Automatic annotation (TrEMBL), chains A, B:
Biological source species: Minwuia thermotolerans
Pfam families given in the database record: Ala_racemase_N, D-ser_dehydrat
The protein, known as: Alanine racemase
SUPFAM superfamilies: PLP-binding barrel
Coiled coil: none
InterPro entries in UniProt: Ala_racemase_N, D-amino_acid_metab_enzyme, D-ser_dehydrat-like_dom, D-ser_dehydrat-like_sf, PLP-binding_barrel
GO MF, one annotated term: D-serine ammonia-lyase activity
Domain of life: Bacteria
Length: 371, 371
């Protein structure tokens, strides 16, 4: 059952029902343009990751601004994005099992679709399904470049690439080289060093491919924490950053080359919480807890009222120190989530606002698209 | 957009698509019966909290077994439970603002409905809306009994109770006295002491009410960690435990009177994850991360294969040490969530299984019912 949106277009922000996911569209558009400008200036393509926003409306906005397509993490996410009008999708993940592979190959009939592989049997299954469906799929071999998650070791990647190139029904398109662990290294120089090591791993595979007559393939990867290094490396052709459009509290803790926080991208995503109760202690209780906010990367920061602090979350409640503000039941507290991706996934609707008024209501198209 | 269920009735568990929320119905039914037996033996009513399961099917199952009704945390949750056939609901939370209070008073036309208050203005607004709608609402005054969240201080509760009793359109029904903080105190004696202190707070209010000619009201509260103490106190009339039906990894760390883990309730809730990738390190990567599992109360435990351990979660991935099991892509890993309530809220469907086969598919009726 779908729940109704917490606001209507034209409402002042003060009347939005809480808790609600609210986007400052001015900052969102500025972030989208800033990343596209950087990619254009470096001569690399931008394929933003849609796992951050899960919104077909935002994906189409990114593509209208120059993005070549989007990334998804799950086949269900890709299906919903395709239904929402996105026609070029790379699934930056392994798709395993006959049921999901069948869906993947059927979706490839309708949109340009790529998928990552790191296993010979999985590659063979995908190729067989693609031949059966008659739709060509782009195959990216995922290389382990320092993240310690999926991917084949660089020295073994060449063999899998050759297997992909030899399979009928699929097109060997390139390498997936993403180091997620590097994204949250605070120090600029250390973050750059982690991507330099990832680049070395990519070089090993590219040399192998060159020898095998498979040169000139696409290398795709990078995230909001590290994209400047991949973009400047001369190795990556495509950036997959996602969180830059929202900038959660965690990413904002990354430091730039001067040792000060990066300010290229602004916070555009907020959870609007409402005060439920004023406690005898002077603290207030708001209506946004673990079911409205992800806390895996730390508690949310308070964007307003100034001086207030979010102290703790239980399932449906948050305890806030008002910091001098005279908060009463029904008043709003504006929170910057610690981690935007799993926070967005908790909500059905995005409330888009400009100058204090609601201008857009978007569904979170792929909310809960977990398989 | 609703996603299709990850299985069909009759499927063997091995073929369930992952990640999926799976319930062992035998254990679920045993847990439901065990808690009802305890409540019956102690002569107290059971009103299980539906914030744990968010499922109208499970709520009706609990009521068929003797529960007097259910608890909800949000007005949207209560609406969806009512639509799902539940006719007696206590909202154990403050409902704030004209829009939500309007919904509350309208819902009271269709089901027996109670709500908690801890503020005079909020009480007056609710009573006005109830008079307007013509439906009587039960009012429970929430008393702060040691949790440090919502509720009025015991010495101030009497005045609010008298105000509730004086309002037309609502019925002053009793006291909400819940100490959520006590639920997760590991030591049995300390947990009992925290509830004994909560009982002292309740006594203060009851004495005040007796004097005001408002004796004989209902006292409701208690959770899975502490219900035995409230049930045995002679003060509480109604238990609100919710998590006992599932038993997450966190609640299973509570100790009984002998200093050993409590075993009255078994783990009935699992997240079935699928292996995506076998890493060069020997670890495997599964398809259940932060968007399929809540990690606020610790990482999930592995129920099978034996000896495996879940080491870390990112948005869509989990890293698992297989502990000797030969796991290949597509194999299943059965996880016991660290915290069941926010985990259930991430899923659209519950797969009910018995003897290794899917027997029921239930929607998570109030999934995402956050406002």
């Amino acid at each position: 059952m779908s729940l109704p949106p917490p606001a209507r277009v034209g409402d002042p922000l003060e009347s939005v029902d809480t808790p609600a996911l609210v986007i400052d569209l001015e900052v969102l558009d500025r972030n989208i343009a800033a990343m596209q400008d950087i990619a254009d200036a470096r001569g690399v393509a931008l394929r933003p990751h849609a796992k951050s926003h899960k919104s077909a409306d935002i994906a189409r906005r990114q593509m209208a601004c120059g993005a070549v397509g989007i990334c998804c993490q799950k086949i269900s996410e890709a299906e919903l994005m395709a239904t929402g009008g996105v026609d070029d999708i790379l699934v930056t993940n392994q798709i395993v099992g006959a049921r999901k592979i069948g869906r993947l190959s059927r979706l490839a009939r309708h949109v340009r679709l790529g998928v990552c592989v790191d296993d010979t049997d999985n590659l063979a299954e995908i190729a067989a399904a693609a031949r059966h469906s008659g739709a060509e799929l782009d195959i990216y071999v995922e290389v382990e470049v320092g993240m310690g998650r999926c991917g084949v070791a660089p020295e073994k990647a060449g063999a899998l690439c050759r297997a992909a190139a030899a399979e009928e029904g699929v097109r060997f398109a390139g390498l997936q080289a993403y180091n997620g662990r590097a994204q949250h290294i605070r120090d600029h120089r250390e973050r750059g060093a982690a991507i330099a090591r990832a680049g070395e791993a990519v070089r090993v595979v590219l040399a192998d491919l060159e020898q095998a007559g498979l040169g000139g393939v696409r290398v795709t990867g990078a995230g909001t924490g590290s994209f400047e290094f991949e973009a400047g490396s001369g190795l990556w052709h495509e950036l997959q950053a996602g969180s830059y459009i929202f900038m959660d509290a965690d990413y904002a803790r990354n430091l730039g080359p001067e040792g000060t926080p990066e300010t290229t991208f602004g916070h555009s995503l907020f959870v609007l919480a409402g005060v439920l109760s004023t406690a005898p202690s002077g603290r207030v209780v708001v209506d946004a807890g673990l079911k409205a906010l992800a806390v895996d990367s730390g508690l949310p920061l308070v964007a307003g009222p100034e001086g207030a602090a979010y102290l703790g979350a239980s399932d449906e409640h948050g305890v806030v120190d008002p910091g001098g503000a005279a908060l009463r039941p029904g008043d709003h507290v504006r929170l910057i989530p610690g981690h935007c991706d799993p926070t967005v996934n908790l909500h059905d609707w995005i409330v888009g606002a400009r100058d204090g008024f609601v201008t857009d209501i978007w569904p979170v198209t792929a909310r809960g698209a977990v398989f």
